[in-house]
Amino acid sequence: MVRPEDIQTYIQEGLPCDHIRIDGDGHHFEAVIVSAEFAGKSRVQRQQRVYQTIKDRLDSGEIHALSFKTFTPEEWEAQRG
Amino acid sequence: MDAQQVIKEQVTGNPVVLYMKGTPQFPQCGFSATAVQILKACGVNQFYSVNVLENPEIRQGIKDYANWPTIPQLYIKGEFVGGCDIMREMFQAGELQQMLEGVAQA
């Protein structure tokens, strides 16, 4: 069974993250991903960028249900107030 | 006709298209169920839905079509809008309602 920390490693290996948090029960995962690479990108482009890092594992079915929110460092600061 | 052509006809021939697992009445995945609920919350009760579980070629083809590896996928007027997370974000921001205004009846 895939663990949240595994998914975190997969994503971090493919995308420099300022902050990443993943919660999940082995089947469904929720992630918050903060990366400077998201600046100037649309919502679709940001998710595509994250999907790049886990595409093989999505295709294989190792990861089925991952829901995530993306922020730039500036958006993340503003969000946290 | 190959899967890419079928998909192109589906998304351009219908104003609102949702590729999902299961049907709007009986979604077979939580994310697909959420996508249907969001569309309904936007006042869209009539939309073209494609059950990818019944069509393996479309299931693979739709991932290539928008370079998007997951399902559900929403298309409005032929444009790929996003999956469940993006639909939720846009709904919460009021953007999805704006995009859908007047479209579904067209």
UniProtKB/TrEMBL annotation, chain A:
<protein>
    <submittedName>
        <fullName>BolA protein family transcriptional regulator</fullName>
    </submittedName>
</protein>
<dbReference type="InterPro" id="IPR036065">
    <property type="entry name" value="BolA-like_sf"/>
</dbReference>
<comment type="similarity">
    <text>Belongs to the BolA/IbaG family.</text>
</comment>
<dbReference type="InterPro" id="IPR002634">
    <property type="entry name" value="BolA"/>
</dbReference>
<dbReference type="InterPro" id="IPR050961">
    <property type="entry name" value="BolA/IbaG_stress_morph_reg"/>
</dbReference>
<dbReference type="Pfam" id="PF01722">
    <property type="entry name" value="BolA"/>
</dbReference>
From TrEMBL, chain B:
<dbReference type="GO" id="GO:0015036">
    <property type="term" value="F:disulfide oxidoreductase activity"/>
</dbReference>
<feature type="domain" description="Glutaredoxin">
    <location>
        <begin position="16"/>
        <end position="81"/>
    </location>
</feature>
<keyword id="KW-0676">Redox-active center</keyword>
<keyword id="KW-0001">2Fe-2S</keyword>
<dbReference type="Pfam" id="PF00462">
    <property type="entry name" value="Glutaredoxin"/>
</dbReference>
<keyword id="KW-0408">Iron</keyword>
<dbReference type="InterPro" id="IPR004480">
    <property type="entry name" value="Monothiol_GRX-rel"/>
</dbReference>
<dbReference type="GO" id="GO:0051537">
    <property type="term" value="F:2 iron, 2 sulfur cluster binding"/>
</dbReference>
<dbReference type="InterPro" id="IPR036249">
    <property type="entry name" value="Thioredoxin-like_sf"/>
</dbReference>
<dbReference type="InterPro" id="IPR033658">
    <property type="entry name" value="GRX_PICOT-like"/>
</dbReference>
<dbReference type="InterPro" id="IPR002109">
    <property type="entry name" value="Glutaredoxin"/>
</dbReference>
<comment type="similarity">
    <text>Belongs to the glutaredoxin family. Monothiol subfamily.</text>
</comment>
<keyword id="KW-0411">Iron-sulfur</keyword>
<protein>
    <recommendedName>
        <fullName>Glutaredoxin</fullName>
    </recommendedName>
</protein>
<feature type="binding site">
    <location>
        <position position="29"/>
    </location>
    <ligand>
        <name>[2Fe-2S] cluster</name>
    </ligand>
</feature>
<keyword id="KW-0479">Metal-binding</keyword>
<dbReference type="InterPro" id="IPR014434">
    <property type="entry name" value="Monothiol_GRX"/>
</dbReference>
<dbReference type="GO" id="GO:0046872">
    <property type="term" value="F:metal ion binding"/>
</dbReference>
